[in-house]
From TrEMBL:
<feature type="binding site">
    <location>
        <position position="68"/>
    </location>
    <ligand>
        <name>Mg(2+) 2</name>
    </ligand>
</feature>
<dbReference type="GO" id="GO:0005737">
    <property type="term" value="C:cytoplasm"/>
</dbReference>
<keyword id="KW-0378">Hydrolase</keyword>
<comment type="function">
    <text>The RuvA-RuvB-RuvC complex processes Holliday junction (HJ) DNA during genetic recombination and DNA repair. Endonuclease that resolves HJ intermediates. Cleaves cruciform DNA by making single-stranded nicks across the HJ at symmetrical positions within the homologous arms, yielding a 5'-phosphate and a 3'-hydroxyl group; requires a central core of homology in the junction. The consensus cleavage sequence is 5'-(A/T)TT(C/G)-3'. Cleavage occurs on the 3'-side of the TT dinucleotide at the point of strand exchange.</text>
</comment>
<dbReference type="GO" id="GO:0003677">
    <property type="term" value="F:DNA binding"/>
</dbReference>
<keyword id="KW-0963">Cytoplasm</keyword>
<keyword id="KW-0238">DNA-binding</keyword>
<keyword id="KW-0540">Nuclease</keyword>
<keyword id="KW-0460">Magnesium</keyword>
<feature type="active site">
    <location>
        <position position="7"/>
    </location>
</feature>
<dbReference type="Pfam" id="PF02075">
    <property type="entry name" value="RuvC"/>
</dbReference>
<dbReference type="GO" id="GO:0008821">
    <property type="term" value="F:crossover junction DNA endonuclease activity"/>
</dbReference>
<comment type="subunit">
    <text>Homodimer which binds Holliday junction (HJ) DNA. The HJ becomes 2-fold symmetrical on binding to RuvC with unstacked arms; it has a different conformation from HJ DNA in complex with RuvA. In the full resolvosome a probable DNA-RuvA(4)-RuvB(12)-RuvC(2) complex forms which resolves the HJ.</text>
</comment>
<dbReference type="InterPro" id="IPR002176">
    <property type="entry name" value="X-over_junc_endoDNase_RuvC"/>
</dbReference>
<keyword id="KW-0255">Endonuclease</keyword>
<dbReference type="InterPro" id="IPR012337">
    <property type="entry name" value="RNaseH-like_sf"/>
</dbReference>
<keyword id="KW-0479">Metal-binding</keyword>
């Protein structure tokens, strides 16, 4: 499975692509950080992010895109920009029929470090180790994008089992409702 990991941000947006193999084997294919100037108008900044994401989607052809789920109760303007950056990437993927999954920061940290409260240095160190990189990915946005992709590779089998179970439960509810309706008739 090829996963594009996205650490959304308006000033710095981390992008990565990894290939997941059997078990927990993961190989990094590409990583970069899109930077947009703070003095540019918001639509132009989002366009830069969108154009770069579309290039990545067309070049790397991921099977799925994993985006960090944004939430915060502190700096609303920062959260808004981050959410908008993630949104334009999700739309670009959706246009291509590529599934998009959102993971919380604590899910990602727990997946790669075993600790949902790990700091950025721990995440970076574990990403470096998991991928067998010669040097740490920098800036932290690059490491976070790789961590998102790794997290999704490792969580994908469980996500698929949950979706299958939910579909089976929905089908059983539908059949039961039809059976009740037929019994009443």
């Amino acid at each position: 499975m090829r996963v594009m990991g996205v650490d959304p941000g308006l000033t710095r947006c981390g992008l990565s692509v990894v290939e997941g193999g059997s078990g927990r084997q993961v190989i990094a294919l590409d990583v970069d950080v899109v930077r947009t100037p703070a003095d540019q108008p918001l639509p132009q900044r989002l366009l830069i992010i969108s154009d770069t994401a579309e290039h990545w989607l067309d070049t790397h052809r991921p099977d799925v895109v994993a985006v960090e789920r944004v939430f915060s109760q502190q700096n609303v303007s920062t959260v808004m920009g981050t959410a908008q950056a993630g949104g334009v990437i999700a739309v670009a993927a959706a246009r291509r029929g590529i599934d998009v999954h959102f993971h919380t920061p604590s899910e990602v940290k727990a997946a790669v470090t075993g600790n949902g409260s790990a700091d950025k240095a721990q995440v970076t160190a574990m990403v470096t180790r998991i991928l067998g990189l010669q040097q740490k990915p920098t800036p932290a946005d690059a490491a976070d994008a790789l961590a998102l992709a790794i997290c999704h590779c490792w969580r994908a089998p469980m996500i698929a089992r949950m979706a299958a179970a939910e579909a089976m439960a929905a089908e059983q509810r539908r059949r039961y409702a039809a059976k009740l309706k037929a019994a009443r008739a």
